[in-house]
Amino acid sequence: MEQGQATTMADRRLSDGRWLRIPGPTVVPPRVLAAMTHEMIPHRGPEMQRLLGGIIEKAKTVHETRQHVLVWPGTGSAGWEAAIVNLLSPGDRVVATVCGAFGKRFAEVGTRFGLDVRPLAVHWGQAITPEAFAAALDDAGSVKAVFITHNETSTGVTNPLPELARVANRAGALVIVDAVSSAAAMPLKVDEWELDWVLSGAQKAWMCPPGLMISAISERAVAASRTSGYPRFFWDVESMLKAVAGGSTATTAPVSMLYAFNTALGMILDEGLEQAYTRQARLGELTRTGVRKLGLELFAEPGYESASLTAFRPPRGMAAKALRDRVRARTGIEIAIGQGDIADQVNRIGHMGWVAAPEIEATLEAVRAAVTEDDRL
Ligand SMILES: Cc1ncc(COP(=O)(O)O)c(C=O)c1O
Predict the structure, then answer these.
(1) Which residue, 119, 150, 282, 318, is most buried by CB atoms nearer than 10 A?
(2) Nearest to 334 by CA among 13, 20, 16
(3) Which of 102, 149, 161, 208 to mutate for ligand 1's pocket (most ligand atoms within 8 Å of CB)?
(4) Are strands 197-201 and 174-178 parallel, antiparallel or unpaired?
(5) Is any atom of ligand 1 closer than 6 Å to the C-beta of 76?
(6) Given pLDDT bands bounded at 50, 70 and 90, which one contains residue 376?
(7) Is the CB of 154 under 6 A from ligand 1?
(8) Residue 18: pLDDT over 90
(9) Residue 377 pLDDT
(10) Domain ranges in the chain?
(11) 111-129 tens-digit pLDDT
């Protein structure tokens, strides 16, 4: 079953008729929402053991790993902190890829934790190349870890993760990956690419509400956690692994979110990973073709455009906010503006998760009407 095609376009509207075409939170399928209404179960008992065990197995399949997957209550930013406090110690040197607002923030979080962060910054809209990454690692000398933003949600750029991970592994650095807007939307081969901590949040291509932080964690990362110099309780990976081995979580499980995630994982695997990634890539292509046809300029460097969202410049003389507001007022479709320094220079259309072609076509038509002042919509 192709999940994106499984229901009608109307099903994917919000109850007030609006459409969510922002790059997260994404549209949550009714089946996932319904799963959240499950009554509470004892958070330590056989039902939880089955639920959690099933989730971890399915999430391992999506991450293509035989090592560990853990879930905590939280969002993507929680994943940054969890990776830092488990794997590193104050003063450790890290190289951080900065090609947009989220990479910048991840690097800043590292600095707040007292790490010696060496940012590799490129113009927003560009990708991080393996060559530049290798040079940055060489310049930095002895590096304990790297922070890689797989998909930069502020610019619609996907960095070449397998190649970047290869460079980092050659340098003996732990590979920490922000996969917040890539997980479940594009391939993530944790074992093959030798990634150590891959974090994401439920509210993107996982098709869930915000509230769950998902992390794939390597054995090498678990070993590194034993020598980390940070105090931690909630995020402690070994406590969580021990609890999960016993069929529960270290602290009270986010029961409703777990039911949601279990159902969403089932939908992703029913569709099939390859099919889901192909659908996402096609939606990206469809969006970019439509944007180009409107004479608008794509923001991402060619060759690195994201399958989960598309960023583009509004027409000359029109602010991104004005375009967003016009689209909203005419059609009830919610597209996004940019972030940080490029907030008013960029619009973004999210196409990750529970999405099919018709609503992208409708969104492109709404953008067309907004930029041409066509009042028929
Ligand atoms: C790439 C990326 N990293 C990190 C975050 C931060 O996640 P959160 O807002 O869920 O804490 C986001 C949020 O959109 C993101 O897109």
Answers:
(1) 150
(2) 20
(3) 102
(4) parallel
(5) yes
(6) low
(7) no
(8) no
(9) 65
(10) 3-23+272-372, 31-269
(11) 999 999 999 999 999 999 9
Q: Is the CB of residue 254 below 6 angstroms from any atom belonging to ligand 1?
A: no
The residue to mutate among 180, 308, 348, having the most atoms of ligand 1 within 8 angstroms of its beta carbon, is 180
- Residue-wise pLDDT for 228-282, tens only, equals 999 999 999 999 999 999 999 999 999 999 999 999 999 999 999 999 999 999 9
Spacing, Cα 83 to ligand 1 middle (Å) = 14
Span from the CA of 180 to the centroid of ligand 1 (angstroms): 6
Instruction: State the distance from the centre of ligand 1 to the C-alpha of 73, rounded, in angstroms.
Output: 14
Is the pLDDT score of 4 beyond 60?
Answer: no
Q: How far is the CA of 154 from the centre of ligand 1 (A)?
A: 10
Distances (CA, A) of 275 to 145, 158, 278, 281: 33, 19, 5, 10
Is the shortest distance between the CB of 277 and ligand 1 below 6 Å? no
User: Per CATH, the architecture of 31-269 is what?
Assistant: 3-Layer(aba) Sandwich (3.40)
Dmax over CA atoms of the chain, in Å, equals 64
Q: What is the pTM of this model?
A: 0.97
Helical segments of the chain, H only? 30-35, 46-63, 76-87, 101-112, 130-140, 161-170, 219-225, 237-245, 255-271, 273-293, 320-331, 357-372
- Give the mean pLDDT of the chain: 96
Residue 240 Cα to ligand 1 midpoint, Å, equals: 23
Domains 3-23+272-372 and 31-269 share a fold: no
% of the chain exceeding 70 in pLDDT = 97
CATH 1.10.150.530 assigned to 3-23+272-372? no
Look-up of token digits 């732990």: 174
Nearest to 185 by CA among 280, 314, 321, 101: 280
Query: Is the CB of residue 81 below 6 angstroms from any atom belonging to ligand 1?
Result: no
Query: Is the Cβ–Cβ distance between 177 and 171 less than 8 Å?
Result: no
